């Protein structure tokens, strides 16, 4: 492959409209044209001068951008919401690129979420086999026993899914209010996973915050703030995702 050529699915992913895996499906489905000709070959190579269309809409190759956001509670982890609620992209209104969240945080969950237009990296980070640590702090109604914590690390069944924590640590206990603060580390990111896990052992979550994603944290940020990742952080994040591939 020439230094000026790239695989078609990679260029589509870098345009910010989808991940590389979904771009491959678009190509196989005959929904991609290069210079007016439909292309269905995954290994097809293009240059910066080629005109690429997906579903008859021309794409432009955006510069990849990477943002870390401290999502407040009451914000949707999406680029749009049919109910008109605030979404994470509303928190960074002054950028030109079409970014989207890497994974999700529940409406009532605050904390660290990444936004990017790099579909290839997003796909890597979201795949559970790559074992990126996601660290949450949960305030619980009640205090978990050692047996209950062990059960969460072994895995529990919830609505036909197996939910498992990598680690669970009690940080503090308020005996008077009968509440506790617990740190939970996950590799998965299933819908409402932390809340469902604690509900299964009859300890409802009062508050939930994601404090860390891999090596990234919220240091220096207030709720609603964001910052751009440094080139070194992006490189390190990609390496962390690939180490267990």
What would you note in describing this structure?
This protein is an alpha+beta fold and 245 residues long. The chain folds into three domains: 6-58, RNA-binding S4 domain (Structural Genomics Hypothetical 15.5 Kd Protein In mrcA-pckA Intergenic Region, Chain A), CATH 3.10.290.10; 66-128 and 217-242, Alpha-Beta Plaits; 133-213, Alpha-L RNA-binding motif (Alpha-Beta Plaits, 2-Layer Sandwich), CATH 3.30.70. It is 22% helix and 30% strand. It has helices spanning 8-14, 20-28, 119-126, 146-154, 193-200, 231-242; strands at 6-7, 32-34, 37-38, 45-46, 52-54, 57-58, 66-71, 100-101, 110-116, 134-141, 156-158, 161-163, 167-174, 179-186, 205-213, 216-217, 226-228. Strands 7, 8, 9, 10, 13, 14, 15, 16 and 17 form a nine-stranded mixed sheet that branches. Strands 3-2-5-6 form a four-stranded antiparallel sheet, with no helix packed on it. Helix 1 packs across helix 2. The longest helix has 12 residues, at 231-242. The protein is elongated and about 70 Å long. The model has no long low-confidence stretch (mean pLDDT 89).
Could you write a compact summary of the structure shown?
The protein is of the alpha+beta class and 245 residues long.
CATH superfamily of the largest domain: Pseudouridine synthase I, catalytic domain, N-terminal subdomain
In percent, how helical is the residue content? 10-25%
End-to-end Cα distance, whole Å, is: 24 Å
Annotated CATH architecture of the largest domain: 2-Layer Sandwich
- SS summary, helix count: 6
**CATH fold-level topology of the largest domain:** Alpha-Beta Plaits
- Total individual domains: 3
- Main beta sheet: 9 strands, mixed
Return the average pLDDT rounded to an integer. 89
- Strand pairing plus helix content: what structural class? alpha+beta
Percent strand: 25-35%
The shape is elongated
Task: Please count the beta strands (DSSP E, at least 2 residues each).
Answer: 17
* CATH C-level of the largest domain: Alpha Beta
* Poorly predicted segments: none
